[in-house]
Amino acid sequence: MPAYAPTLLLDAPLLASRLQVGRVLVKAETYRMGLPSFKILGASWATYQALCAHIGREPEPWHNINELAANLVFLKPFKLATATDGNHGRAVAFMARLLGFEAQIFVPDGMAAARISAMEKEGATVSIVAGDYDAAVARAAKEVSESCLVISDTSWPGYETIPNQVIEGYATIFHEIDDAIDASGLAHPDLVAVPMGVGAFMAAGVSHYRSGSNQPTIIGVEPLDANCVQESAELGEIAHVPGPHQSIMVGLNCGRPSLIAWPRLAAGIDWFVSVEDEAARQAMRDLAEAAVVAGETGGASLAGVTALLGDKDRRQEVGIDGSSTVLVIVTEGATDPIAYEQIVGRPHDSIGRILTAIR
Ligand SMILES: Cc1ncc(COP(=O)(O)O)c(C=O)c1O
Known about the structure:
single chain, alpha/beta, Rossmann fold, binds pyridoxal-5'-phosphate
């Protein structure tokens, strides 16, 4: 991928003192290969694997994305399609543009104009589907054909391979975090906070941390009115939380966990935290003070940690004290710059002062 580089892992002493813990590390997905979220990691890997499966082999040898695009020109006209709450669709559109394909992105109604226009700027055709994210997923699924691959980050019966590859792509983040921590000699986290929509990203986190030697406490954070993973955990099977989901944490506005992610979520998450929008807004402001640009969904992890550790009894139950290391994953930057400025009180591009980059 052009412009691939590990994103920053930051030391945020201001947040550590507010949370009364030893250290807060922030993995900042504010800029990832030119996009303002981590989603390209899943979309790129899954698109490549899906293309290989589609043509029944690896493409002719290539050294960069332009050569890959040239080797796939025989497929054209060719399309990538998906449903999205914003970031995944933008990443799929980005991949389609790099490869010279068309992109057809289905979105729920009510999506912010900035998110739609970001996908259109990548050359995508954006279609608004009446209903919520689940309705958009159902519509996108119908698009599959000999000349169209559906690159979905969520899965349903009979559609599992590509979403699994999306999860594999997301694992990159956790390897980068380990590498940066190992290189710095710091302690590995005692607690890791991950935001959850359909739970694909969390599935990557669970697989990573539950198979390694560091076994942190894992907390999954969702919006209060779209907490489908928490509801599923309470029910003991996949639950549906009906929409419309109105949270400003739009990347997390999902009514049903991904079928393939669910078993990993059920087995690996220690704490489920559902947060109100105001908690996400406050987290965005707190992160801005710590020089990290986090969009609404990006603020969710810190909002969850703040809620959990703010309760004295819970804090003790979780086993976190003044010497603990907490890892907060900020999964997006300012995906809606106008909303960002309204919430934080400053434009996102005025916040760029890096305090201490671990890497
Ligand atoms: C910025 C951001 N963070 C987190 C998530 C949640 O990922 P998942 O749906 O895999 O749980 C999304 C999903 O779109 C997102 O866009």
